[in-house]
Design goal:
The chain is α/β, with parallel strands linked by helices. It is built from 8 helices and 13 strands. 31% of the residues lie in helices and 21% in strands.
C-alpha cells in the first residue's frame, strides 16, 4: 500500500479537489466526493491524511445518556486518544445533521494530538469556537444537541459510509474550500502525480484564455496548445506553492 510520504503530501498540497476528482474519474471512480459537507473554518491549508474511521449507530437510552462520554468503553473517546498524528478522523453519522457528532473540546484535543482534520456527515456543536481552530473540520452544519442524543459509537477503524462515499481505514482524505475527496490508498501515487501535473497545465491554459484564445483547441488542449505549454514550462513557469493556503 502506498504511504503518504512527505513528497506525496507536498504534491497533493498544490492540487484542488477538482483536479483530484478528475483523476479518480479518469480511473473509473465516480463516487469519491463526500456529499453535503463543507468546511467550518475555510482558509486553512488543504486537509490531507489517511482516514481513521468511526461508525455511529443510533443512540439507545440505556447506553447513551448525560455523562456517558466518561465511560472508558466509549469508542468515540478511545478513537480520539488512539488516532495517530497526521490522520483525518472520518465519522459516519448516517447523514444526521440534527445532532452533533463532535464539539469544540474534542476537536481541540484532536488538534493537540496532531490530527490532519475531521470529516463527518452530521453536525458539529460549538462552531464559533471550532471556527478559530487550526484544524480543518468538515460537516453538514451546526447542531447544538450533544453526541449522545442521537449517536452511539459502535466501531472504530472499519469501512464506513460518509456522505454516501465508502471510506476504508487508510484511504487518503483530501479537502479544500470546495470539497472532500476520498482517494483509495493504493492509487495515491498516480493520482497525486497526475493531479499536480494537471494543475500546472491548467495554470497555463488560463494564461491562454487571458490572452484571448478561444476554448477550441485550448480546452481540451490540442497538439499545438501542448507545444506552447511545453515551451511555457521549459521557460520557467512559476512553481506551484506547496501547502498553499486554500483561499477558495
Amino acid at each position: 500500500m502506498t504511504v503518504l510520504t512527505p513528497a506525496l503530501h507536498a504534491m497533493l498540497s498544490t492540487c484542488s479537489a477538482a483536479s483530484v476528482s478528475t483523476q479518480l474519474v479518469k480511473r473509473g471512480f465516480r463516487n469519491t466526493a463526500v456529499r453535503g459537507v463543507g468546511p467550518i473554518n475555510p482558509g486553512l491549508p488543504r486537509m490531507i491524511g489517511p482516514a481513521y474511521t468511526v461508525r455511529y449507530i443510533p443512540a439507545r437510552e440505556d447506553l447513551d445518556a448525560y455523562g456517558s462520554g466518561g465511560d472508558p468503553s466509549n469508542k468515540q473517546r478511545q478513537a480520539i486518544e488512539q488516532m495517530p498524528a497526521g490522520a483525518v478522523m472520518v465519522l459516519d453519522c448516517r447523514r444526521d445533521a440534527d445532532v452533533a457528532g463532535m464539539g469544540a473540546i474534542l476537536c481541540r484535543r484532536l488538534q493537540m494530538r496532531g490530527a490532519a482534520g475531521v470529516v463527518l456527515d452530521g453536525g458539529v456543536r460549538d462552531t464559533a469556537q471550532v471556527r478559530g481552530f487550526d484544524l480543518p473540520v468538515y460537516c453538514q452544519g451546526p447542531a447544538a444537541p450533544a453526541n449522545y442524543v442521537g449517536h452511539h459509537a459502535a466501531d472504530v477503524q472499519v469501512p464506513v459510509s460518509c456522505g454516501g462515499v465508502a471510506v476504508y481505514p487508510g484511504d487518503i482524505v483530501f479537502g479544500d474550500g470546495e470539497a472532500v475527496i476520498v482517494i483509495p490508498a493504493h492509487m495515491l501515487d498516480e493520482v497525486a502525480t497526475e493531479a499536480a501535473e494537471m494543475e500546472e497545465r491548467e495554470r497555463f491554459l488560463l494564461t491562454e484564455i487571458d490572452d484571448g484564445r478561444s476554448i477550441v483547441g485550448v480546452y481540451p488542449p490540442n497538439a499545438h496548445t501542448m507545444e506552447r505549454f511545453a515551451a511555457w514550462r521549459n521557460g520557467g513557469a512559476p512553481a506551484l506553492t506547496s501547502d498553499a493556503t486554500d483561499l477558495a
